[in-house]
Amino acid sequence: MTPEELRALCLEFNGAEETFPFGPDTAVFKVGGKMFALSALDPGRLQVNLKCEPDRAVELRKAYPAIVPGWHMDKRHWNTVSLDGTLPDDLVRELVEDSYDLVVAKLPRREQLALDWPGVGRVP
């Protein structure tokens, strides 16, 4: 996956926006003002921090060397995913979507409805 593909993936979700609160080299992808992905978008060492359910985070770290506890993040809820070609693109897409869903699940219902989020009404 390239930096451009990661950016496009993160921005394809309803209400997703790209911001640069840490300077021009670090993209923060948000929904409802809350971060769901963070990446330097460096083609030489492309990584992305993604939110994850704690139990699943541990499972993923055991199964994939390219997934480690979130760098500079709450390691219980965030993973750093190295996009070095060892992970299937389908898995990366799933992880980004899961991160987005975890953030949207915590937004007020009216915001979830405005995003046309399919998870409205589910218990997070």
Question: What attributes characterize this protein structure?
Answer:
Aspartate Aminotransferase, domain 1; alpha+beta; single chain; six-stranded antiparallel β-sheet; 124 residues; 22% strand
User: Helix segment count?
Assistant: 4
Distance between the termini: 29 Å
SSE string, helices as H and strands as E: HEEEEHEEHH
Gyration radius over CA: 14 Å
CATH fold category name: Aspartate Aminotransferase, domain 1
CATH architecture: Alpha-Beta Complex
Beta fraction: 15-25%
- Placed side by side, the strands forming the largest sheet appear as 1-2-3-4-6-5
How many separate domains make up the residues?
Answer: 1
Describe the overall structure.
- The structure is a single chain.
- With 124 residues, the chain is α+β, with helices and mostly antiparallel strands.
- It has a single domain, classed as Aspartate Aminotransferase, domain 1, CATH 3.90.1150.30.
- It contains four helices and six strands; from the N terminus they run H-E-E-E-E-H-E-E-H-H.
- The protein has helices spanning 3-11, 54-63, 89-105, 109-114; strands spanning 17-19, 27-31, 34-39, 47-51, 67-69, 78-82.
- Strands 1-2-3-4-6-5 form a six-stranded antiparallel sheet, with helices on one face.
- The longest helix has 17 residues, at 89-105.
- The protein is globular.
- The termini are far apart.
- Keywords: DNA-binding.
- GO terms for molecular function: DNA binding.
- Pfam families: YjbR.
